[in-house]
Every structure is written in C-alpha cells, then in structure tokens.
Amino acid sequence: MLEAKNLNKSFAGKQVLSSLSFTVAAGEIMCLLGANGAGKSTTLNLFLNFLQPDSGQALIDGVDVHLEDSSKHKLVYLPEQVNLYQEFNAIENLKYLACLSGLRVTEAQIHAALDETGLDNSARQQNLKSYSKGMRQKVGIAFAVIRQAKVLLLDEPTSGLDPSATLEFIRIIEQLAQKGAAILMVTHDFYCAHTLSDKIGIMDQGRLLTLLENKQLPISTLEETYHELISGKSLLRKVS
Ligand SMILES: Nc1ncnc2c1ncn2[C@@H]1O[C@H](COP(=O)(O)OP(=O)(O)OP(=O)(O)O)[C@@H](O)[C@H]1O
C-alpha cells in the first residue's frame, strides 16, 4: 500500500506541494491529473526518495521511504522514456536488471514475464535500439513482473503510444493490479486515466483539488470537472 501523508515540498522558497494526502491500496490504480507544474512528478520523486519532503511522509506498506530503504525492493518505477541498455536485447536487459537487484532469474522466468506483457517472441533477441516506445515499456513492465513489485509508479506512460499500444498497456497494468500491485500513475491522458483508474486525483499548484472515485464516471464528467477546476471555466460553456 502506498500513502502520501500531509506532504509538503518547496524549491527555493516556492511551495510546490501543499499538504498532499492520499492512499493507494493493494490492487488499486490511482491516477494524478493536473496542469504542467502541478506537482505530479515531484510527488513520484518523493516516493522514489529522489527528493526529501519538507514535512510529511511518503509511505510504502507503512514504511517511510526517507527513513528506511527496505521499501525500494517493493517498488518499480516506469519513467516516460524507459531507458534500458540499447545494445542489449530484452532478455539481456532483464537478466542485468535482475542481477543489479540481487535476483536470480532463469531465462524461462524472463520469457514468462515477457509473455505477460505480450512482447513478441521474435523481438526478444533484438537490441533495444530497434524497439518502439511501447516495446521498451513492455520490457520495463516485465521487470516489475520479475520483481513481483507491490508498488508501481508510472510517469506519463501513454504519451507517444498509438491507440492500440495504449489499449495493450491498459490491459497489462490491469493485470498487475489484479495480482495485488498498488499503482500510481501520472498522466495527461484522460482516456487512459478514465479507463484504468479506480480513483483520479486532480492537482493544481501542489494541491489535490479533488479525488474522484471512478466507478461509472462518464469521461465527459471527468473532463468537465478537470477544466472547471484547473481553468475555472466550464468546457460546455466554452464550446456553446
Ligand atoms: N528540482 C527542482 N528544482 C526546482 N524546481 C523544481 C524542481 N523540480 C520541480 N520543480 C518545480 O516544481 C513545480 C512542480 O513540478 P513537477 O515537475 O512536479 O510538475 P508536474 O505536475 O509533474 O508537471 P508536468 O506535467 O509538466 O510534468 C514546477 O514549478 C517545477 O518548476
């Protein structure tokens, strides 16, 4: 389980996160939407312990990531651009990543993880420099499968993916959540947020303005709420 507890963060006197609190339970997918500069990536960086909060806690399974690094073994981070070794193929990359994490994996386990992501068998022996963004992402997700990640942090995972690759990505992430991972995703993609998330937080200027439960929420309501909150204007009024 992942929990932001009253997180505050400033850079050079500028408050970029203010009293940010939310939880993502095991098996749940939460998405953060917000304008550029709202503080979404800063939030991920606090969970990754790349940054220290001024106050508050970023907790993974009840452990403050800034006080104990035991939580880092439970976590996999997928940045917008998955930067793996371009000169290695998928199998070699995953073997190497597993080795760096102190995990022993067989080639059969690596193939099984890649099977879950749907990466074509024929591509697995090719160097990553020939991969598309979606294929690279599948290798990153396969690492989460190998690591049996309890927490997955995703930063704008669908930007630049074509509609089919986006759908495939959604299917893979749903499967990881069904297996019990807590997933926090930052995105500007309404469709992905709407299709995938159990709850959607809308952020602006470091604050969580609202937290929408996504049970049968129409995508038009999500978009309307976003625009009203962020720009103070109704989408419907704008177009009429
Ligand atoms: N290392 C840093 N040093 C100084 N300011 C920073 C740093 N990282 C982020 N900021 C500032 O903090 C604010 C929040 O940035 P953040 O990257 O978290 O926003 P975001 O919601 O992820 O935006 P985007 O959608 O553009 O990725 C911005 O004003 C940004 O300029």
UniProtKB/TrEMBL annotation:
Matches recorded under InterPro entries: AAA+_ATPase, ABC_transporter-like_ATP-bd, ABC_Transporter_VariousFunc, P-loop_NTPase
Recorded GO molecular functions are:
ATP binding
Ranges of residues in domain ABC transporter: 2-230
Which keywords describe this protein according to UniProt?
A: ATP-binding, Nucleotide-binding, Transport
SMART domains reported for this sequence: AAA
A Pfam family of this chain: ABC_tran
- Please state what the protein is called: ABC transporter ATP-binding protein
Q: What is the lineage of its organism?
A: Bacteria, Pseudomonadati, Pseudomonadota, Gammaproteobacteria, Alteromonadales
